Structures are given as C-alpha cells and as structure tokens.
Amino acid sequence: MTRIGKPAVLLATALLLLVATGCWDRKEIEERTSVVAIALDKHPAGIRVSVQVPIPVKIIGGASGGGGGGQTGVQNVHTFSTSARNITEALMRIQNASNQRLFLGQARLLIISEDVAKAGLRDELDALRRHPEIRRNIWLLVVPGEAHRLLEFSPNLEQIPADYLINIVRSGTEEERIPNITLGQFLINLSNTSRQPVANVLEARRATAQWKGVALFRNDRLVGHFSPGETWVFMQLTQAKHGGTITCSCPAGDSGSFTFTPRQSDLKRRARMENSALSLHLEVTLDGVVNEKNCRMPLDTPEHLRAYEQQVERELERTARSIIRYAQQRKTDVFDLGFYLRAMHPNIWKIQQKHWDEKGFPAAHVTVRYHVRITQRGFEVK
C-alpha cells in the first residue's frame, strides 16, 4: 500500500465509524413510560384498556430509604385506563395522557376479563400480534369479573403489584404446578387446526392473589374452566408435567385421608380405528411421595403400599374421565389429541380432521390408565 493510500483508508474508516454509531436513535430510560401489565375489559364503547406503570422515584427511593420510604403495592405504580372502539385507539388516548412515550416492551402480563374472553379474542389479539413491542413470552391471564381490578389490588410482598402476579405464575411453572401458557403459545394453538388454546385463571382479593386453574377455549371463545386439581390431571395428560399435591381418601374404607405429591411423570398415547370408531388410550406413570397420612393402615408392607397406590390411581382416573367428558361436551380438544393424531397417525387424521371439533373429538372413546409408584413413605411412629 502506498503512503498516500494508507492515510486515505484510515480517514475513510474513521468517517464510517462516525456514521455507523449505534446511539443516533437512543432513547433514555427516563424519557419513556414502561408498561408492566395490560388489562382488557368490555365497555359499551368497545373495549376498556388499562395499563400499569411503575413510578421510578418511589421504587428507587424505597430501595435506599428515601423517596418512597419502602412503600409497597399501588403506591408505587400508576394505572392509566380509558375506553375506545379498539385497543390501538385506547393506547393512543393513554399516550396522550402520559408525559412520556409509552413503551410496551417491558410488559409481562396480559390480563383479560371473562366477558372479553367469552365474546371472542380474535380482534383483540390481532392488535397485540401486530404491535412490534409486545413480546410473545408475556403471561396471558383470564380473571373473573373486571380485569382492571387485578391492577388495583395492593400486595405487601412486592413493590410493584404486577411483579407479585408474575412471580406466582413463574414459580408455579418452574415447579410444574401451573401450565406455562404465554401469549405466543396461545396464538400458536389458536392458529393450529388440531389444537385448542387454554389460559391460566388468576383471582385477586385484597392483598393476595390466587391461581384458580385454567380457562378452556373453543377457537377464540371461552367455554369452560378446570379447577386447580383438574388442571394438574390435565397437565399430566397433555404435557407429562407432574402437577401438584392431591388429597385422597384412605384405602380399605378407613375414615381419613392422605396426601400424595407427584415428583415425576411420563405419558404414553395410543390410537386405533375400528369400524369407523376412534379409540384413544392415555397411560400415565407417576412417581411421588406421601407427605401426610391420617389412615390406620401402615405403609410397612408391599401389599399396604400397593393399596395406597391403587387409591391414588382411582382418584386420578376418576378426575381424568370427568375432565375429558367435560371437554368433549364443549367440543374443545384441549388435550392435544388431534395434534397427536396429526403427528403420529396421519392416516387416521385425514379421516377425522374435517369434522374433528364437531364430531371426531366429542365422539372419540378415550380411556385413561394411571400407574402410581410411591417412592418415599416417610417415617411413622409405632
């Protein structure tokens, strides 16, 4: 390289570095209003949209002993709420009432009232699907009553109420007590002709909130619910997740109860067609422990141990038959049986897919068999 060429290259490189900087469109965090939760309610005008935003000076001050002085709950947040014909128009009205630009990229909760869910979510989800800042891993929740009420309760355990709700769902999914249902997963199931979506249900009262199971959808409309106990069996039959602790009656007619906590779960499925009749068999293996026992029968022999295992099997199989029948009556295949047929039995699916929701799934003969193994019995005083 010549002496004239080398300085020219360095000068050109320096000019390129100046125009290639990544800070030309930066936006300081103090110059935007970060939304942590969004709530949707029915309204005569169309839709009511509420958003919760933290008040930074109170949160920062609470951590250092000044400013907010360690306040918790609704004192540390502000909730904007307005009604409009659609979500985009409502967000624009909220933007007009905010002193900074609204930023939805930090939102972790999408809370939907039962009334909105029963009317259908397709139009509402269309706006959120198109918004570039809405993340697909946002938690989707359905609440009884009005959704904005969930943004107004004041927990004592977190500075930001939305964080309290997020941690309920996050810890539950990590422990396999609560299904991991995000907006992205809901949209995937909604667009899949062999699946139906579900959503977690949360209810807040005063300073606490509680997970209440899952909401069942047929396409984009809410059609039913599973309780927490039913949801754990639902998770075992669909996701091979072990679920939570169940309470069973004592074996041999004893008037007491014992609790069983699953630790590991496995799921196997089979399908066959006979004379145009579809039969599906689900087989679940559960390993778990006995946490508490108020029964006279001890756990000291293999025969007694097997009696307790069979009692758990009967309880779970009874619940499984009940929730499958419940879903068939509402014509919603939330158990992913159609998805299983599509993937593993394409010849059967070709016959069933055209009328799966209306006739195939409701008429299918579905059987469930549990195999329970108690791996830890605990100590007993004799």
From TrEMBL:
<dbReference type="GO" id="GO:0009847">
    <property type="term" value="P:spore germination"/>
</dbReference>
<keyword id="KW-0309">Germination</keyword>
<comment type="similarity">
    <text>Belongs to the GerABKC lipoprotein family.</text>
</comment>
<keyword id="KW-0564">Palmitate</keyword>
<keyword id="KW-0732">Signal</keyword>
<keyword id="KW-0449">Lipoprotein</keyword>
<feature type="domain" description="Spore germination protein N-terminal">
    <location>
        <begin position="25"/>
        <end position="203"/>
    </location>
</feature>
<dbReference type="InterPro" id="IPR008844">
    <property type="entry name" value="Spore_GerAC-like"/>
</dbReference>
<dbReference type="InterPro" id="IPR057336">
    <property type="entry name" value="GerAC_N"/>
</dbReference>
<dbReference type="InterPro" id="IPR038501">
    <property type="entry name" value="Spore_GerAC_C_sf"/>
</dbReference>
<dbReference type="InterPro" id="IPR046953">
    <property type="entry name" value="Spore_GerAC-like_C"/>
</dbReference>
<dbReference type="Pfam" id="PF05504">
    <property type="entry name" value="Spore_GerAC"/>
</dbReference>
<protein>
    <submittedName>
        <fullName>Putative spore germination protein YfkR</fullName>
    </submittedName>
</protein>
<dbReference type="Pfam" id="PF25198">
    <property type="entry name" value="Spore_GerAC_N"/>
</dbReference>
<dbReference type="GO" id="GO:0016020">
    <property type="term" value="C:membrane"/>
</dbReference>
<keyword id="KW-0472">Membrane</keyword>
<feature type="domain" description="Spore germination GerAC-like C-terminal">
    <location>
        <begin position="212"/>
        <end position="378"/>
    </location>
</feature>
